[in-house]
Amino acid sequence: YLLGLAEQEPLQFAVTAKTGYHAKSMNEQNIKVYRVKDEFLNLGVVKVKSPAGHVINAYNAERTICDLLRNRNNVEIHDLHSALKAYIRSSDKNIPQLMRYAKELRVEKLAKQYFEILL
């Protein structure tokens, strides 16, 4: 949503924390918490402006696409396809970086399948 890859504002906000992070208070506030290994936590982090105008950390488009692929069973197929299409149309896309991230996050084969069809 923050990068323009979603068609609408999410119904539930999501954050990423390192494995083992205790997120009880976030769960109580209906915030979805994804956990990743420490080595992946800062992969692709960028500063973006929130809708309220605050500068916050988010993942870049390449990392976001990889995360959507990793969690594809928990993502609406329409949302996944919309994000992939928006990424392909983007003038800022970086396919080599996307594939490096996909390899590190173990979704390289899946990413290749999707992008062979879309490109």
Question: Strands of the biggest beta sheet: in what spatial order?
Answer: 1-2
What is the CA-CA span between the terminal residues? 23 Å
Global morphology: globular
> H/E element string?
EHEHEEHHHH
Strand content: 15-25%
Mean pLDDT: 93
Computed CA radius of gyration, to the nearest angstrom? 14 Å
Structural class: alpha+beta
- Strand runs, count: 4
Low-confidence stretches at least 5 residues in length (pLDDT < 50)? none
Helix content: 40-55%
Give the number of helices: 6
Q: How many strands, which pairing sense, and closed or not: the largest β-sheet?
A: 2 strands, parallel
Please, could you describe this protein's structure?
The protein is α+β, with helices and mostly antiparallel strands and 119 residues long. It has helices at residues 24-28, 38-41, 61-70, 77-89, 95-104, 108-118, and strands at 14-18, 32-36, 45-49, 55-59. The protein contains six helices and four strands, in the order βαβαββαααα. Strand 1, helix 1 and strand 2 form a beta-alpha-beta unit. It is globular and about 40 Å long. The model has no long low-confidence stretch (mean pLDDT 93).
